[in-house]
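W.,

You were right to be curious about this one. When I first looked at the sequence I had no strong expectations either way, so I just let the prediction run and decided to look at it fresh. Below is the sequence, 245 residues in total, followed by the output.
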Amino acid sequence: MTRYRATVAYDGTGYHGFQRQAAEHEPTIQGEVERALAKLGQPGITVTGSGRTDAGVHATGQVIAFNADWRHGVDDLQRALNATLPADIAVLDVHEAAPDFHPRYDAVSREYVYTIYNAPVRHPLERRYALHVAEPLDVTSMNAAAAVLVGEHDLAAFGNPTVGQVTVRRILRAHVWAEPPFIRVELEGNSFLYRMVRSIVGTLLAVGRGRMTLDEFRAVLESRDRSRAGPVAPAHGLCLTRVRY
């Protein structure tokens, strides 16, 4: 058996997240990759991901790992997987990895980008990948609020831990910028709480709409009270773009 590491991109619209579900009829990214490996003569393989993206969330930089008894090169494995996987999932690269490589626990940081389509009229071609907000948003204020998050904080106001009870995380970069008609919210951290990015975006939208001040945003962070944060932004605007090791 050889350990492989691969980068996967996917349109998460039709999937119940990355992680395989107990109900087999619910399609997931992990399930589809494992099914493709089985078709390539590699049955019973468990694929591990760097993060458990929620239902409807996309990725351009999800990292996975698996053990396989593949007798050809990594290029052949990549081609075979892409020929077998659904059209909305693609393997961007495949490499041999150390036997103990773990895409989640070995990660130094993860980067997410949330896209907002900020225009008076919605655009049908953007409906899968960007949240439409018709009213103008104050990007400068949103970026100032995002900067408050940089550093190590207890982020309980924005999410719940996936494992254990610790809600302290380190945000390495938080930036909001405009490329009209798009607004991008970029967050890089050592790890993220459940729905944390979407909760942060929902709260930043309140700032952008003038319904929350910078001081009020800071108070939400310091409160560690989820009820004080904004609503969770819809999944379809979120994309896992990079995992660093």
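Here's what jumped out at me. The mean pLDDT is 96. And, maybe more interesting for your project: The beta strands are 2-10, 48-49, 58-68, 89-96, 109-118, 131-133, 151-154, 168-179, 182-189, 238-244.

Coffee later to discuss?

I.
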